[in-house]
Amino acid sequence: MNDPTAKTIATVRARIDGRVPKVAMILGSGLGGFAEAFEDRLVISNRELPGFPYPSVTGHAGDLVFGGLGDCQIAAMTGRSHFYETGRADGMKTPLSVLRALGCEILVLTNAAGSLRPEAGPGSLMLITDHINLSGTNPLIGPGDDTRFVDMIDCYDPELRARALESAAAQGVELHQGVYMWFSGPSFETPAEIRMAKVLGADAVGMSTVPETIVARQLGLEVLAISAITNMAAGLDDRPLDHEHTVEKAAQALDGMTRLMTAFLRGLGQAP
Q1: Could you tell me the pTM of the whole model?
Q2: Could you tell me the CATH number of the domain that includes residue 145?
Q3: Which member of 25, 82, 131, 212 is catalytic?
Q4: For the chain, what is the domain count?
Q5: By the 8 A CB rule, do 185 and 207 touch?
Q6: Which of 6, 59, 224, 238 is least crowded, fewest Cβ atoms below 10 Å from its Cβ?
Q7: Which domain holds residue 103?
């Protein structure tokens, strides 16, 4: 068994004692604390899992956390590999392939993002309805077969989005909706780039999520993605942008994200 993905699947299966997660999660900057709400938690460090990234970014712990919320079994990554860390867009391919093999059918993504809309300011949440890939790269580039030609219409599943909106309303959490634009990072966008993004139809910008969504769709996972808005995008207010501020504002959004996600995931556990 020389395939690192197969080795990692075997390693995880040996540790999780028959658990079969339905939902995979990737928790973005400052949002890893959501996994602390899981019942019957089991934590495996990414360092023990071949092919799993160990994040170099503050606010990403780098663990794979198994647990439940009601009848919904979850496998959550507290951190991700970003394109700007390695220069590779496919850094999350092995983790997502492993989670799919373990039984996951749904991928829930969270991230920290900059807002282009004044009504969706720092501390708020935005449901991603579609994305624009402005990075110039794609995680499916390279050797492969015809499965690389992935249909991206409704890549953020409409039924899951409807469920998320219902959960937000039930919890009294305001949930904006909009289009997310992926920039490669790690430098923040310029004001001119943000003006361009607005013209092209973006509502928020960030440095993740899109490559994971593309890989997930190739694997047959249904995808839901929610941004924690941590700042107004470059040129839209007077505050200089930095990662410390991103993590701080993501933590402020964690309460609303936790209430929304807890209700949403418990609801999935009750679904037929």
Answers
A1: 0.93
A2: 3.40.50.1580
A3: 82
A4: 1
A5: yes
A6: 238
A7: 4-270
